[in-house]
């Protein structure tokens, strides 16, 4: 026989969606609160009704005890069914709707009772407190069952205690009053539950929209994946809430910014202090691939707003790329300089060969001395004024290219640049583009001249490149920074109109500016301002003295 497969018991599965789970939980909470509130209301209500019944029983007992017929009957008659005490007590009982009224003498024997056979018998509960002159209220069990009782002493005309009066109100009547209020209570509780269910549904719908109807397990998985991704990527990530406070930092952001968990919950100004990095994170500086400096690190920052009013900023470390960029730019500058020097060297060798063939030996010696001396003076002047080797090499190479094209390239006497550049590659790009444009502008003009001036103002660098060319009309001074705009015919291998836009874009990324004007004497003057382009100096350095100044000193 084929074995019968085991019967699988189907267990009720809870809904997985956040909307359904939140709705069920809130409905359960609302129902529990309604039941708890009803119970908390019924408990004091029951005590209140008991108190009211006991006070009522006590008041009836006091009224009965003050009836002179009761006291006189106890003193003058015997305890019988048709006696005056029983008749008067029954009259009061029926008028007050009490369960029983028992009048007893000082010995505790009954003179009245709702059951005639009990008259003349001893009471079932101790009358000692009432016979001692005390008034008693209690819930107790007697021959008529559980009741709310009130006992008072019975006095004669001389105010002597001759007995006691006990009045009872059946407890079932109290309970009946309590039970009669329960339907109304449940009606109110049902209304509150319905209102709670509606509120729970509205809240659940809102939660559903905000969670995009995902299950709790899906949300948990997304959070786990987000944590793994944030702490695994090589970019720094900083998340800010709608109030501008930091709410998330991954490991790379902590390393790049030099801050820890104490920054969470604080604004960038409080966590980082004043500076360009703070302005970028806070959104006061906008743009893409913004260049910032934090300590000794050069960072590229991007900031993207989120739907909840906050923002997420990413940080890339460009410090490690600076060495590669420096080496690449040095190689390119060296190649350009070598090409120009090779061409110029060939021309000079031809000139020297001609002088030797003409047997003009003295002129040949003088020509060689002038060539070597000019080159040495140019290199020395550049390196004395510009301490950064990459930029100095660029200008030496550009001077050689300018000499080949018949243009005089000068470095202004006011130039001084320490070797503390944060972004030397960016500055090389700016200077190279401006010098190339200036060389193109003065090409073919008489007394062609290009002057480069690099000055520092605190941590800012101010670059000016002047030329003796035709200049730029006022109407076109903004157009020259538009990508693709050029007065020259584009070459077959590429396009023109990208150098000056690149210069302005690099300047603006660092929070600076690039403008063009007209210097004295005509031509064009490009001015680039780069704030925070230098690192903070550890020691103040004085500019190097020229040989003439050294001799004078």
From TrEMBL:
Q: Where in the cell is it found?
A: Cell membrane
Does the record carry Transmembrane as a key word? yes
Annotated Histidine kinase domain ranges read: 423-534
Q: What is its main location?
A: membrane
Bilayer topology reads: Multi-pass membrane protein
Is Nucleotide-binding found in the keyword set? yes
E.C. designation(s): 2.7.13.3
> Region Disordered: what ranges?
533-553
What's the catalysed reaction?
A: ATP + protein L-histidine = ADP + protein N-phospho-L-histidine
Keywords of the record, alphabetical order, are: ATP-binding, Cell membrane, Kinase, Membrane, Nucleotide-binding, Phosphoprotein, Transferase, Transmembrane, Transmembrane helix, Two-component regulatory system
Q: Which domain of life is it from?
A: Bacteria
Gene Ontology MF: a single term: protein histidine kinase activity
Listed transmembrane segments: 21-43, 185-203
Q: Which PANTHER family does the UniProt record give?
A: SENSOR HISTIDINE KINASE DCUS, TWO-COMPONENT HISTIDINE KINASE
Q: What is this protein called?
A: histidine kinase
């Amino acid at each position: 026989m084929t074995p019968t497969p085991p019967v699988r018991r189907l267990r009720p599965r809870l809904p997985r969606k956040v909307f359904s789970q939140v709705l069920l939980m809130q409905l359960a909470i609302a129902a529990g609160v309604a039941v708890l509130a009803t119970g908390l209301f019924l408990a004091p209500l029951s005590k209140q009704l008991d108190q009211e019944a006991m006070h009522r029983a006590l008041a009836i007992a006091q009224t009965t005890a003050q009836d002179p017929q009761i006291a006189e009957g106890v003193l003058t008659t015997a305890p019988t069914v048709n006696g005056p005490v029983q008749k008067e007590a029954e009259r009061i009982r029926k008028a007050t709707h009490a369960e029983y009224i028992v009048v007893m003498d000082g010995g505790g024997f009954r003179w009245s009772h709702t059951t005639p056979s009990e008259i003349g018998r001893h009471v079932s509960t101790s009358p000692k407190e009432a016979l001692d002159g005390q008034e008693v209220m209690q819930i107790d069990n007697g021959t008529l069952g559980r009741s709310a009782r009130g006992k008072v002493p019975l006095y004669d005309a001389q105010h002597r205690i001759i007995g006691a009066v006990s009045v009872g109100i059946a407890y079932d009547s109290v309970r009946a009053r309590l039970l009669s209020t329960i339907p109304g209570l449940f009606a109110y509780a049902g209304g509150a539950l319905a209102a709670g269910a509606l509120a729970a549904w509205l809240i659940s719908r809102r939660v559903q929209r905000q969670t995009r109807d995902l299950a709790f397990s899906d949300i948990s998985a997304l959070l786990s994946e987000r944590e793994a991704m944030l702490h695994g990527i090589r970019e720094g990530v900083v998340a800010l809430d709608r109030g501008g406070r930091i709410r998330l930092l991954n490991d790379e952001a902590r390393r790049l910014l030099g801050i820890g968990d104490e920054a969470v919950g604080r604004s960038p100004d409080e966590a980082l202090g004043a500076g360009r990095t703070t302005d970028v994170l806070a959104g006061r500086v906008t743009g893409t691939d913004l260049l910032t400096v934090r300590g000794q690190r050069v960072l590229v920052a991007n900031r993207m707003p989120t739907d909840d009013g906050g923002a997420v900023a990413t940080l890339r470390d460009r410090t490690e790329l600076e060495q590669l960029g420096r080496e690449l730019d040095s190689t390119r500058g060296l190649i350009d300089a070598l090409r120009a020097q090779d061409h110029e060297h060939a021309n000079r060798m031809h000139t020297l060969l001609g002088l030797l063939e003409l047997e003009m030996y003295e002129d040949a010696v003088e020509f060689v001395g002038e060539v070597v001396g000019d080159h040495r003076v140019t290199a020395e002047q550049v390196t004395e004024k510009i301490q950064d080797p990459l930029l100095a090499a660029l200008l030496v190479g550009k001077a050689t290219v300018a000499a080949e094209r018949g243009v005089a390239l000068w470095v202004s006497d006011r130039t001084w640049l320490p070797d503390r550049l944060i972004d030397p590659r960016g500055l090389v790009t700016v200077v190279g583009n401006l010098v190339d444009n200036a060389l193109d502008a003065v090409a073919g003009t008489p007394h062609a001249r290009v002057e480069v001036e690099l000055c520092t103002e605190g941590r800012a660098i101010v670059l000016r490149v002047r030329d003796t060319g035709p200049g730029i009309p006022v109407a076109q001074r903004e157009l020259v920074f538009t990508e693709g705009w050029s007065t020259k015919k584009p070459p077959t291998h590429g396009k023109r109109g990208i150098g000056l836009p690149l210069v302005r874009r690099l300047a603006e990324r660092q929070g600076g500016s690039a403008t063009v004007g007209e210097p004295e004497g005509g031509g064009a003057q490009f001015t680039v301002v780069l704030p925070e382009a230098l690192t903070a100096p550890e020691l103040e350095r004085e500019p190097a003295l020229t040989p003439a100044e050294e001799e004078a000193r």
